[in-house]
Specification:
Blueprint: H1 2-29, E1 35-37, H2 52-72, H3 83-95, E2 102-106, E3 116-121, E4 126-131, H4 135-152, H5 170-184, E5 195-200, H6 215-225, E6 229-232, E7 248-250, E8 254-257, H7 259-266, H8 268-271, H9 278-283, E9 288-290, E10 296-298, H10 303-317, H11 320-330, E11 339-342, H12 344-357, H13 360-370, E12 395-397, H14 419-441, H15 474-486, E13 489-492, H16 495-505, E14 525-527, E15 530-532, H17 540-554
Helix pairs in contact: 1-2, 5-6, 7-13, 12-13, 14-15, 14-16
Region (Disordered): 451-471
Biased composition (Basic residues): 451-463
Protein name: DUF1308 domain-containing protein
Length: 555
C-alpha cells in the first residue's frame, strides 16, 4: 500500500503543476507572431496548447482511481497504473522547447492513424514520444519471436533466418511508424521536417555486452538509422518552466506602406481637429434635419456615416499619427533616418482613388506625400509641429516590385529569412498563385477563390478550412511580399487580410520561433514583420457636404 500512496501523492502534485502551468505559464509560452497592433495585440497568437486540458483530465481520473484504492485500505495484488507514463510525459513537457503545440494528440487525427505524439514542441519542429518499456519486456518480445521462428524451422535442411533478418520488435516498429508520419507531415515551405525524439525512460545506456540480448543495442542502432533521435533514461526532477519575459516587437527604420494606410494618412479625420463632445462626433458626418415634431435633429445614419463615425472615434482614442510617432520615437529613430516606401502598384493606384472621392485638402496631402518636400505633408494639420520622429514624411517608390511581375510562378523566398517571414511569404504567394489560376479560368471573375488554411498541428495536417470571405486583395499581398523581401516592416490597416494570412500559415495552432534571432533569449526586441493600425477612409467630401447642408438649413 505504501507504493500506492506514493503514486497518489505524485499524481496529486502533477495535477497541481499542470493547473499552475495553465494559469500562470501557458499565456507566455504560446507563439506570438511579430505583429504590432495596439487595439488587438492578441489577435496574432497561438490560441492554446492543444490537448492540455484533456491531459489534465486523464491525470485527474488516474489520481481518483489510485486515491480510491488508498481509501479502500486494501492493497491490490498486482497494482497497475498509467502514472509512470503520465509523469514521464509531463517531465518531457517541462523540458521541451517552446512554443509547445500539443500534448497527447494523434498525428493526422485519431481516425487517420495510430501515431500518438506525446508532445509536439518547438512550434511543430519536434515530435516527442515517451515509452516506458523495460529491458526485460523487450527481451520477452525477442524470446516470444524466437519461439515462433524456431517452430517454423524444425527440419535440419531448413535454413534458419539470421539475427539481423529477424530484428523486429514493438520499439523499432514504433520508431519507423513515427518517422514515416513525420515524413508525410505537411509543413510550410522552408520549414524542416519535424524531427522525432523517442525517449525510453525506463532503459539505461550500457556497454553493448551488458544488455540481456544483443538485439537490444542492434535495435537502438536501427532506430538511429531511421532518423529518429533515441534517448535512454529519465531526466532530473520535473520542474514547472519559469516565466519568460515577453518579447517586444518594434518597427523597422524603413517601412512599407500598404495602400490602405496611404489613404488613412491623407484622410481628413487624421488631420482635422478632433470633436470635443459625443454630439460633435455624431454630427460631423450627419446633416441637420427636422424630426416629426418639427425639432432640429440629425439625419439617420447610413452605412457610410456609421463607418466614418466609428473611424473618427478610433482616431480620437488613438490618433494614427500619434501611434506612428510614439512607436518610432520609442524605437529611438531620428526623423532623418526613417524611410517610407510604397510599391509602384500602390503609387499608381493612389490618384485613381484620391481624384475620385478625395477632398481638396486630402488631394493636397496625397501630392505632398508622394511628390512634395518632406515637411509639406503636415501643413495645416492638427499635428503640425507636435511630432518628433514623424515630423517629416514623404514616401519613396521601389524601383522594382513583384507588382510588375506577370506571374508568381517559380519564385522562391529570399535566403536567410526568419521562419515566420518564410511562412508569411509563402502564404502570400499561395493566395496570389491561386488568384492567378482562377483568373485564367474565368477572366470575368470578380472574386478570388477561397483558400484552405494549413494546419501545423499534426493531429490534422491536411485539414482544409474554407474561409468565409474572399481572400486578401492582390495589392496588399504584393505589399507584404515587398516588405519581406526588403527586410522592412509592413504598415497596414487591413486587419482582416493579415488575420487571414496568419490563419493560412497555421499560427493559431503554433509556429516555430526563429532560433537564429534569439537562441539564448538574450534579445527581447525583434523587428516586427507587420504593423496594423485602425482603418480610416477619405471623409472630407462628407464633412464638407454636411457643413454646406447645415449652413443652408440654418438659413
Amino acid at each position: 500500500m505504501q507504493e500506492v500512496v506514493k503514486v497518489r501523492d505524485e499524481l496529486e502534485q502533477l495535477c497541481i503543476d499542470i493547473r499552475t502551468f495553465q494559469k500562470d505559464i501557458q499565456p507566455t509560452s504560446l507563439f506570438k507572431a511579430p505583429v504590432i497592433d495596439h487595439f488587438h495585440p492578441n489577435n496574432y497568437s497561438q490560441k492554446a496548447i492543444a490537448g492540455l486540458r484533456k491531459f489534465l483530465d486523464a491525470v485527474e481520473a488516474e489520481r481518483d482511481h489510485v486515491a480510491g484504492i488508498v481509501a479502500s485500505g486494501v492493497a491490490p495484488e498486482n497494482f497497475t497504473t498509467n502514472a509512470p507514463n503520465q509523469l514521464a510525459i509531463w517531465s518531457e513537457f517541462c523540458n521541451a522547447k517552446w512554443p509547445i503545440v500539443s500534448i497527447g494528440l494523434f498525428a493526422g487525427g485519431a481516425s487517420r492513424g495510430q501515431n500518438k505524439i506525446d508532445i509536439v514542441a518547438d512550434g511543430g519542429n519536434e515530435w516527442i514520444k515517451v515509452n516506458t518499456i523495460k529491458e526485460t519486456r523487450l527481451v520477452a518480445e525477442f524470446r516470444e519471436q524466437d519461439s515462433y521462428i524456431n517452430s517454423d524451422y524444425d527440419s535440419e535442411e531448413d535454413e534458419a533466418p539470421t539475427q539481423r533478418d529477424s530484428l523486429s520488435n514493438s520499439i523499432l516498429r514504433l520508431a519507423n511508424s513515427l518517422s514515416k508520419a513525420a515524413e508525410a507531415e505537411e509543413r510550410p515551405v522552408g520549414l524542416p521536417r519535424a524531427r522525432v525524439r523517442l525517449i525510453l525512460n525506463r532503459m539505461e545506456e550500457k556497454r553493448e555486452e551488458e544488455y540481456l540480448d544483443v538485439r537490444i543495442p542492434e535495435t537502438f542502432r536501427a532506430i538511429s538509422d531511421s532518423g529518429v533521435l533515441l534517448e535512454l533514461g529519465t531526466r532530473g526532477p520535473r520542474q514547472i518552466p519559469p516565466l519568460k519575459p515577453p518579447r517586444r516587437y518594434v518597427p523597422s527604420k524603413a517601412i512599407v506602406l500598404d495602400l490602405s494606410v496611404v489613404i488613412a494618412l491623407c484622410c481628413d479625420s487624421t488631420h482635422r481637429p478632433l470633436p470635443a463632445t459625443e454630439e460633435e462626433l455624431e454630427g460631423r458626418f450627419r446633416a441637420m434635419c427636422l424630426n416629426a415634431d418639427g425639432d432640429k435633429d440629425l439625419e439617420p445614419h447610413s452605412n457610410v456615416t456609421k463607418d466614418l463615425r466609428d473611424q473618427l472615434r478610433w482616431e480620437s482614442q488613438r490618433p494614427l499619427a500619434q501611434e506612428l510617432d510614439d512607436r518610432l520615437s520609442e524605437a529611438g529613430y531620428a526623423p532623418n533616418t526613417l524611410e517610407f516606401w510604397v510599391t509602384q502598384e500602390v503609387k499608381d493606384r493612389i490618384p485613381g482613388i484620391i481624384d475620385v472621392i478625395g477632398g481638396p485638402a486630402e488631394k493636397a496631402r496625397a501630392s505632398a506625400l508622394l511628390e512634395g518636400p518632406d515637411s509639406a505633408f503636415w501643413h495645416n494639420s492638427r499635428h503640425e509641429g507636435r511630432l518628433t520622429a514623424l515630423k517629416t514624411l514623404r514616401v519613396r517608390t521601389f524601383p522594382d516590385s513583384i507588382a510588375s511581375s506577370p506571374t508568381t510562378a517559380a519564385r522562391e523566398p529570399p535566403r536567410g529569412l526568419p521562419a515566420f517571414e518564410i511562412g508569411l511569404w509563402t502564404a502570400c504567394m499561395d493566395i496570389l498563385g491561386s488568384s492567378e489560376v482562377e483568373s485564367l479560368k474565368d477572366k470575368n471573375a470578380t472574386k478570388i477563390k477561397n483558400l484552405p488554411k494549413r494546419s501545423r498541428n499534426p493531429r490534422r495536417p491536411k485539414t482544409v478550412f474554407h474561409a468565409t470571405t474572399k481572400a486578401p486583395s492582390s495589392h496588399t499581398l504584393r505589399t507584404v511580399i515587398a516588405g519581406i523581401e526588403h527586410g522592412m516592416t509592413v504598415l497596414t490597416n487591413n486587419r482582416g487580410a493579415i488575420g487571414k494570412l496568419i490563419s493560412h500559415m497555421g499560427v493559431y495552432d503554433g509556429f516555430p520561433e526563429d532560433r537564429n534571432v534569439d537562441e539564448t533569449e538574450a534579445r527581447l526586441e525583434r523587428r516586427a514583420a507587420i504593423w496594423v493600425v485602425n482603418p480610416s477612409s477619405l471623409s472630407e467630401w462628407r464633412r464638407i457636404q454636411v457643413e454646406e447642408r447645415n449652413a443652408a438649413f440654418s438659413i
